[in-house]
Amino acid sequence: MIIRILFLAFIGSLITACCSTGTTVVLIPDAGGKVGQVAVTTKAGSTVLTKANESAEAEQAEQAPTQAVQLSDKKINDMFAETLAKEPTPPEHFRFYFETGNADLLAEANAELAKAKAAIQARKSCDLSVIGHADRVGDNEMNRGISMKRAGMVAKALIDIGITKECMDIRYYGENDPAIPTADNVDEPRNRRVEVEIR
Residue 135, SS3? Predict the structure, then answer.
């Protein structure tokens, strides 16, 4: 999971009229709405942020960070508008599924290919991954082979509709990266897949 954290260095006046440099940290959800956690730590203590839009300030290394406070979306946008405007567009994902022991594309793959092509063209992207997977039926060596064939079939289908092969990073993991963890020799259709990620 990618944790999105916003930092803001600020200069503030202390009561004694001297200045200090500090940092504001804000934890915001990723594109899928998930939130990780981050610790804001100084020599004097630590504050852990675990909720969307939580924030803490660390004004000095010798001073503990402030307690976590929830910021409104408006406040975050006011503070970090320039940073948020530069944030890259999140990747898009497309999945292609397969029958047991087979690398042939299913009929529904045509619609998914068209969507992937449209996304690639809209982004003007030449940065995509084509990653083959298998379920845990059979041994891992066989599953690595079938996942390689599946990735190759999807890559060929993308090439056939006009996507440049040089833009693709083609990989295969066999049964080693399941979408749905299972015991050995369990037939799980959601694990027999190729994932295309477009950046």
Answer: coil
pLDDT at 13: 25
Domain coverage including residue 38: 4-85
Is residue 98 located within the same domain as residue 174? Answer: yes
Task: Indicate whether 124 and 33 sit together in one domain.
Answer: no
Query: Do 141 and 67 share a structural domain?
Result: no
Give the whole-angstrom CA distance, residue 143 versus residue 189: 14
* List of residues 6+ apart from 151 with CB closer than 8 A: 130, 131, 132, 170, 171, 172, 194
What is the total count of domains within the chain? Answer: 2
CB 197 within 8 Å of CB 157: no
Classified as helix, coil or strand, 154 is helix
Please tell me whether residues 186 and 100 are part of one structural domain: yes
- pTM score above 0.85: no
What are the tens digits of pLDDT across the range 11-61? 332 222 233 568 889 998 887 788 888 999 999 999 999 999 999 999 988
Q: Report which of 34, 98, 43, 45 is spatially closest to residue 67, judged by C-alpha positions.
A: 45
Q: What is the dihedral of CA 19, 75, 28, 10, to 10 degrees?
A: -10
Residue with tokens 């619609």, as numbered in its chain:
111
What is d(CA 95, CA 104) in angstroms, rounded to the nearest whole number?
14
Of 37, 46, 38, 39, nearest in space to 64 by CA = 46
Give every residue of the chain whose pLDDT is below 50, as ranges. Answer: 1-2, 9-19
